């Protein structure tokens, strides 16, 4: 009953109650490591102690040596880190970034309401989850046919999915509602705060065009870079002559300066102020 009262209070008191939140947010990013780096990530005790880790839905079980995907959960975003033998068939070096809008009240997945410019065509796909004998829509995702090696999609998540997942009524779906039930708030790593991508020309064009469609303007730019701020995450795109786009750096917000730096496979983890900076080689 207390949970239900809280949910009702949240709905009627929020500034976006019973509508769609217009702010596009970064939901999660996935990337596929080489086998050796992935195995070292999973087995590093310090890294596992710093952050909230699990191996995914539906039970958010702890990462173990059999896991082919490891999720690092923050308060509003998460990293989906895969090895080359992942169940999705994603190849080493693959990258994808999922964006989403918070959903309040009756579920709606109309992308037209989000477009500030209508020059791009979006296609729709849906993902469902089996709860016993009942399939529930998890999310509707929209994507363009712009070419590139980087996957990007823009999603609406269904509150009814949370209701079935957590066995209590939800009339909204926010990133925090999905994550906060399953994270230990005492862990040092709190959330994703920024990223740098070394882009090929197709992905550089793709992301700038898609962001423009949703009215996201550059925070900073130069001859060979452009920086956006998507809600709480800063995204810098470097224009390079690479064939495929790679992650240059991820920045994770920390509660305090962490005690040490780590070298894990091809990843360098540096504690800089109240951030853990992951540099990719």
Describe the fold and architecture.
The protein is of the alpha+beta class and 281 residues long. The protein has six helices and 18 strands. The strands form three sheets. An eight-stranded mixed β-sheet has the order 2-3-4-1-5-9-8-7. Strand 17 and strand 18 form a beta hairpin. The longest helix has 13 residues. The protein is globular, with a radius of gyration of 19 Å. The N and C termini lie far apart (51 Å). 33% of the residues are buried. The N terminus is likely disordered.
Search tags:
eight-stranded mixed sheet; 281 residues; single chain; 19% helix; alpha+beta; disordered N terminus; globular; 6 helices
Please state the structural category.
alpha+beta
The share of residues in extended strands comes to 35-45%
The total strand number stands at 18
Strand order of the largest sheet: 2-3-4-1-5-9-8-7
The Rg value, from CA coordinates, equals 19 Å
Q: Describe the main β-sheet briefly.
A: 8 strands, mixed
Helix content: 10-25%
Q: Whole-number average pLDDT?
A: 92
Provide a count of the helices.
Answer: 6
Q: How is this fold's topology laid out?
A:
Blueprint (H helix, E strand, L loop, with lengths): L1 H12 L11 E8 L2 H9 L1 H6 L1 E3 L14 E5 L4 E5 L12 E7 L1 E2 L18 E9 L2 E10 L6 E8 L1 H8 L5 E2 L1 H5 L9 E11 L1 H13 L6 E3 L2 E6 L2 E7 L6 E9 L7 E3 L2 E6 L2 E6 L1
Parallel strand pairs: 1-4, 5-9, 11-14
Antiparallel strand pairs: 1-5, 2-3, 3-4, 6-10, 7-8, 8-9, 11-15, 12-13, 13-14, 15-18, 16-17, 17-18
Brief description of this entry?
By secondary structure, the protein is an alpha+beta fold.
